[in-house]
């Protein structure tokens, strides 16, 4: 022990420990002078920790440390704790237990079967009202880079992946209960609509989990997410949603509602546009693969290897030019822009080469699942299956309608649109509804980095830094001198900003019925936030363009 204490309080050990602390806090150590560190250096001196209001460069011995004004960052706890997102697992669990007791028609069974609807519409908004919104929730960066196939990357989305089999199991148990207890359904005619509504809200919560999975780069995650959207009769969502991320806030986006557009006008365009975009994208990909195959065959027969590679690069450039031309389109109506594009000239490609097999097999799988439910459980189960899918699709369309209502990107003089910024999405700062939906309501951060796991999303972001001018590096201080501090003023754009929040004092689960049922009240409440967000979007986009 005495030997250990001597090593612990030795100058060399304290120097190494302080250097490790600096690196752990995210403050890189930069060597200023050419001389090496010695045990007698002044690095082991204790520097008082104060809240920084400006950017400062601190020189301690031969070490330079930059301190930037920013809000307190979220720290990953060292102790294991139950994630708040586990609250979503209550929905399918309650339905499974209630379905087992449906034949008894007791009060407990009906309470469990109605629990998802009550939880979504009543309990969660009340809890969020009582706890209040989150004022500051900065985004996190991963502790270390995770490969798409690494176990850590798979574990980052284990909870959403766990929800999908639980929901499918609960659905099968509800279908079985609806066929095994016909007397209970006959005696209580409102039980079947109750099952539809409750399973619909379970599917709505599952859409948050499935949305998280289709953005993953892990093949298992994407397969589970695709299976879930096929189960809920929305197999075209994965492909159309990636289209939405690319064209958000433009006339080509079927998920961006115009200001003043009621939901009843938005819903058909959202549903039909999702289907049309998915089929169109696959047709274009099939045409591109056919052209590439023909080009390779032509190059292999008449050209050398280098010429074939150059031909492939030219084909990629042509495909990129076609996508840029699509971005310059003025049509806002998806039906007018997308459907004719799928029926344009095929460039003499055979019809079999242009079949979108992904969407064809997806539609066949959806019909096969419905036929299986009918054969195994009967017509009552099919009613629950289709009714729940319809309700979840409607709730998802309302959510997309509210999150992007009225937000748009302006067109630049060269024909392109402004870059994507956090001001193209509304957000919600309430904890429990975000935990229920796997933080999909931190929507701005999600659009800025779609592959980021849900645990790392936040409400605050840092704008682009202005171009820095030439700066002189002060001379390093000696070991006997006090640390030299050079004050540098911070520009206003360097401070952390908060993403736009839709009706900050009202939970998002309360906003959805307002947008669905009362358009005049919705327009009156939300239009001021839309105008402010569009102004900030244009201003922030100009900052990004000036930086680049």
TrEMBL record:
UniProt-listed InterPro entries: AlkB/XylM, FA_desaturase_dom
**Keywords linked to the UniProt accession:** Cell inner membrane, Cell membrane, Iron, Membrane, Metal-binding, Monooxygenase, Oxidoreductase, Transmembrane, Transmembrane helix
List cellular component terms (GO).
plasma membrane
Q: Extract the ranges annotated as region (Disordered).
A: 305-326, 461-489
Task: Say which domain of life the source belongs to.
Answer: Eukaryota
Q: Has the keyword Transmembrane helix been applied to this entry?
A: yes
Q: Tell me where it resides.
A: Cell inner membrane
Q: Write out the GO MF terms.
A: metal ion binding; monooxygenase activity
From the UniProt record, give one GO term of the biological process aspect. lipid metabolic process
Keyword 4Fe-4S (UniProt): no
**Topology versus the membrane, per the UniProt entry?**
Multi-pass membrane protein
Residue intervals passing through the bilayer: 110-131, 152-177, 183-206, 502-523
Q: Which residues form the Fatty acid desaturase domain?
A: 190-293
Indicate, by first and last residue, each region the UniProt record lists as having compositional bias (Low complexity): 468-480
The family database entries (Pfam families) matched by this protein are listed as: FA_desaturase
Concerning its family, UniProt says: Belongs to the fatty acid desaturase type 1 family. AlkB subfamily.
Full protein name: Fatty acid desaturase domain-containing protein
């Amino acid at each position: 022990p005495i030997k250990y204490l001597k090593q612990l309080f030795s100058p060399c050990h304290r120097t190494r420990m302080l250097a490790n602390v600096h690196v752990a806090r995210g403050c890189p150590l930069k060597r200023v002078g050419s001389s090496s560190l010695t045990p007698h250096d002044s690095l082991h001196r204790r520097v008082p920790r104060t809240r920084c209001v400006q950017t400062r460069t601190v020189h301690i011995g031969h070490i330079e440390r930059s301190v930037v004004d920013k809000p307190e960052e979220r720290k990953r706890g060292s102790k294991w704790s139950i994630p708040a997102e586990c609250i979503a697992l209550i929905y399918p669990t309650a339905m499974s237990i209630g379905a087992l007791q449906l034949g008894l028609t007791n009060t407990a069974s009906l309470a469990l079967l109605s629990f998802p609807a009550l939880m979504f519409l009543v309990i969660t908004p009340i809890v969020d009202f009582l706890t209040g919104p989150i004022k500051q929730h900065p985004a996190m960066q991963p502790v270390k880079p995770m490969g798409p196939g690494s176990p850590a990357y798979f574990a980052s989305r284990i909870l959403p992946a766990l929800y999908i089999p639980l929901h499918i199991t609960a659905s099968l148990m509800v279908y079985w209960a609806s066929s095994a207890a016909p007397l209970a359904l006959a005696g209580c005619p409102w039980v079947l609509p109750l099952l539809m509504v409750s399973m619909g809200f379970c599917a709505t919560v599952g859409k948050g989990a499935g949305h998280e999975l289709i953005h993953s780069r892990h093949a298992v995650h994407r397969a589970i997410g695709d299976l879930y959207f096929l189960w809920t009769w929305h197999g075209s969502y994965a492909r159309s949603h990636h289209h939405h991320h690319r064209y958000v806030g433009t006339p080509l986006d079927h998920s961006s509602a115009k200001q003043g557009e009621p939901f009843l006008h938005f819903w058909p365009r959202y549903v039909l546009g999702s289907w049309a975009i998915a089929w169109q994208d696959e047709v274009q990909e099939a045409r591109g693969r056919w052209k590439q195959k023909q080009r390779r065959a032509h190059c292999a027969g008449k050209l050398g290897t280098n010429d074939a590679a150059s031909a492939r690069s030219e084909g990629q450039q042509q495909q990129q030019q076609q996508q840029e031309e699509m971005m310059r389109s003025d049509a806002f109506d998806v039906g007018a822009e997308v459907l004719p594009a799928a029926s344009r000239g095929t460039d003499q490609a055979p019809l079999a080469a242009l079949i979108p097999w992904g969407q064809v097999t997806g539609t066949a799988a959806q019909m096969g699942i419905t036929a299986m439910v009918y054969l195994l459980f009967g017509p009552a189960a099919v009613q629950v299956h289709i009714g729940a899918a319809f309700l979840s699709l409607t709730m998802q369309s309302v959510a997309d309608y509210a999150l992007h209502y009225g937000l748009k990107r302006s067109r630049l003089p060269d024909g392109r649109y402004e870059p994507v910024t956090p001001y193209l999405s509304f957000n919600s700062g309430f904890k429990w509804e975000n935990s229920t939906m796997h933080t999909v309501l931190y929507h701005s951060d999600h659009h800025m980095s779609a592959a980021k796991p849900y645990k790392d999303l936040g409400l605050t972001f840092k704008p682009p830094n202005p171009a820095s001018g030439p700066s002189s590096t002060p001379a390093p201080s000696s070991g006997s001198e006090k640390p030299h501090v050079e004050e540098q003023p911070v520009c206003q754009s360097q401070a952390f900003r908060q993403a736009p929040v839709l009706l900050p004092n009202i939970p998002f689960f309360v906003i959805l019925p307002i947008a669905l049922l009362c358009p005049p009240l919705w327009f009156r409440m939300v239009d001021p936030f839309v105008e402010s967000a569009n102004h900030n979007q244009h201003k922030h986009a100009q900052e990004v363009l000036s930086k680049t």
